[in-house]
Amino acid sequence: MAVFIVETTYVPELSEKRLAARPAHLENLDLMRERKQLVNAGPLSDGSGAVLIYSVPDRTFLDRLLDADPYPKDAVKVASVREWKPNFSI
Fold it and tell me: pTM surpassing 0.85?
């Protein structure tokens, strides 16, 4: 399994659109947690975006998960995706 850190940014002008999709987004996160695909996730303390940590077979699989997220792509942008080699097992 590969571990990826994904950082997202929120588009401030589209916060209402993002918040309308938030319940579906959180349900999706719960489902990925149950499937052990999502290690952890949470918003940044300044409210500008979020960080998500995934444990998935490969980048292609991760991209499919990101594409399926219910958040509107114009309201929540993927700022970076980096593969991570944690020192401790996840």
Answer: yes
